[in-house]
Write a structure and sequence with these properties.
- The chain has 293 residues and is mostly helical.
- Helix content is 70%, strand content 0%.
- It has 11 helices and no strands.
- It is globular, with a radius of gyration of 24 Å.
- The two termini are 46 Å apart.
């Protein structure tokens, strides 16, 4: 009796259009991200802490300004412009320690989204079900970036709106004032940038403690190591860090922040943001494709 050849069944994934498959990957990565209990805590409490620090700064400044002579709204006789030592309301919305906290939060969420799968072994199951590693990592990068962009936008917009409302009697700014929209946009984009950096470090290190230490080191400690102005090359390295670029982008163009021999321009700040985001995304997609799990 001759055995009849049995046709191999087609894989379900190959019968779907590529756009639908990627849509399914996006849904899967969304579920994996929100299935982590830490996601709710970090993304819930973190922004509240950032906003709270900024609001406290605005309240403190409003109380201080209420007990001192009214600041002039026009230059005094003999001067062409207001003194640059006047209170800057924009600074209350973007207090550096608050946004450094957001950087650590965003970087940690991005890192957890990656090393969490490696430490649990889920990454093997994922790549076994979907051998197209680039598609998987691209979907993960897209989901994390989108979530952190929403988080950053809500945090930045709320911080600016609430603090300027508190300071409305002390020359609080509106979003249409020079530098305001740029500062809000830069702060909103800071969250997805740091999340991508965290994902890249998680892909390279694949260890929980090591990745978190690396996130803090790269995002916060490295800029502090390259702050001197004795050697230009040292300062230029520092200028290429996300934290330094963010500080330049949130500065009020109507205020004098002192003498800086090698300042970061607005254009350079946006370039730093784009370059770090692009390089981090490329690392996440390419390293996972070529590295064993």
């Amino acid at each position: 009796m001759t055995a009849q050849p049995v046709a191999e069944p087609k894989a379900y994934a190959t019968a779907l259009p590529s756009s639908t498959r990627f849509h399914h990957l996006l849904i899967a990565e969304w579920i994996k991200l929100w299935s982590l209990r830490s996601t709710y805590w970090v993304l819930g409490i973190g922004p509240l802490a950032v906003i709270g620090i900024n609001v406290n700064s605005a309240l403190s400044n409003a109380d201080r300004l209420a007990h001192q002579p009214e600041l002039p709204t026009a230059p005094p006789p003999g001067l062409s412009e207001l003194p640059q030592t006047l209170f800057d309301p924009l600074g209350s919305a973007f207090v550096a320690p608050a946004w450094q906290l957001l950087m650590v939060i965003a970087g940690s969420v991005g890192a957890i989204a990656v090393f969490g799968e490696y430490t649990s072994g889920l990454i093997r199951t994922t790549f076994a079900a979907v051998p197209a590693r680039r598609a998987v990592t691209t979907a993960k990068t897209t989901v994390v970036t989108a979530v952190m962009l929403v988080l950053g936008t809500v945090t930045a917009g709320t911080s600016f709106g609430v603090t300027q409302a508190i300071l409305r009697d002390h020359h609080g700014m509106s979003i249409s004032d020079p530098g305001a929209l740029r500062a809000v946009a830069a702060s909103a984009l800071l969250a997805p940038l740091c999340a991508l950096v965290g994902m890249a470090l998680g892909t390279l290190i694949r260890h929980a403690a090591g990745t978190i230490v690396a996130v803090v080191g790269v995002l916060l400690l490295l800029p502090a190591l390259f702050m001197g102005e004795t050697y230009r090359w040292v300062k230029e390295i520092g200028n290429a860090m996300p934290l330094t670029a963010w500080r330049a982008l949130v500065q009020n163009p109507g205020r004098d922040y002192g003498v800086d021999k090698y300042p970061v321009s607005v254009t350079e700040g946006w370039i730093v943001f784009g370059a770090w985001s692009l390089v981090a995304a490329v690392v996440v997609v390419t390293v996972a494709h070529h590295r064993d799990v």
